[in-house]
Structures are given as C-alpha cells and as structure tokens.
What we know:
Elements: H1 8-17, H2 33-37, H3 52-55, H4 58-65, H5 73-83, H6 96-100, H7 107-115, E1 120-125, E2 129-136, E3 140-141, E4 152-158, E5 161-166, E6 174-180, E7 185-188, E8 194-199, E9 205-212
Antiparallel strand pairs: 1-2, 2-9, 3-8, 4-7, 4-9, 5-6, 5-8
The structure holds fe (ii) ion.
Amino acid sequence: MKTQFSHPQHLVSAALAGLYGFLPSGMPLFGSLAQQYRSGATLPSPAAAISPETLMTKDALAEIAAGNIPDLGKLCLDLHAAIDRPGSSGSALQFVPVLDAMATLKPGAIKRLLDHPKRKHVLVDNKLFKAVLIRWEPGQFSGIHGHPKGGCVFKVLKGKLQEKRYGAGIPHQLLSTGEFFGGSIAYIDDSLAYHAVGNPYEAPAISLHVYTYGKG
Length: 216
Ligand SMILES: [Fe+2]
C-alpha cells in the first residue's frame, strides 16, 4: 500500500532520520488533542508480558470480542513495540512502518464500523501512545489543534479525508489544504503546523490515528 506524506518537510525529515531518529521540536500547547487524550492510564509493569489483553482498552477488547470492530490486537502490539524500545525517539514517525504494513480492512469490518453507533474507538491509551479508530461522517471536521512533542500519524482506512494546515499564530492562518485517499499516511507535529482534519466529501471515511507524548 502506498504511503503518502502530507508535507515535503516531513519527507526530508523522515529520510534523514530513517524514520527512527527524528525528534521534532515542541511548541506551546494550544487546543491539543494529544493533551486532551492524556488519561493517566498506566502501562503494564515491565515484567508483565505485553498482550492485546494488557495493552488495549477494555472497551476495545469488548467490541472486538463482540465482533463490532476489527481485531487490531497484533497491530497494537506492533505499534507498542515501535515506540517501547531502546533508542526510541518518542516520535510518532516510528509508527509509520507499522501503519504502512497494516492490512486493508475487510468489507465486513468496514461495514460494521460504518454502522456502529460510536464514531470513535480508543484502542490503546497509555503513557506512551494513544491509538484511535475514527469514523468521519460527511461534513464532520475536527477543530484546529496541535500535536506537540511526539506528534501524530494517521492512516486513511476507508474513503477520503481532507487536512487543512495552519500556522501557530492567533488567529491561525491557513497554510495548505491536502486530500488523503485510502491507504494514505500523514504525519504532523507542532514544528510543521497545526491542523484540522475532516470529511467534506459525500461518503463516510474511517481513519486510524496514533499519537505520542514524546520523550519525558
Ligand atoms: Fe490531529
């Protein structure tokens, strides 16, 4: 599946860092989803074996057991391994290879997500990262927000999303507008821009977002 990055600076950064050494500089927090997403949830102790049961949220495990959302346990383990390792930069860029290798969701799984009464499913929420499956109904947009420290990657799993990038100054100045098709992966942190993501199109879309809190 083709990886599409949304910013030339990102391509340069990723190439220089080999996707592993890049630590974006932080900027003051403003309307940060990452900040909102901090839950204080704790990781399993280092001695405990990591499994989907210890890594994923209770809600996600219940939804998977009921067959309402796809079983992304292996993917979550891979995301965890990508950031919980010696030499980790804390950057969400480290998730890109995992998302790039992610299998396409089957039509039945897509339909169940589209039909599900809940629009967001938090798969993992710990001190290292948060992974969220999101359905975007036509006309639905996030507010303008930043991703400080480790930044965020998202992958479009179904449909098409639009991302608007903004400067950090108030009022935010529109810098660019990008379209992301199924299979596309985008990265952002506050050193690049703030952004708003949404679906101005006629069909619903589904994406997976993975956020980190950087190092320390
Ligand atoms: Fe975001």
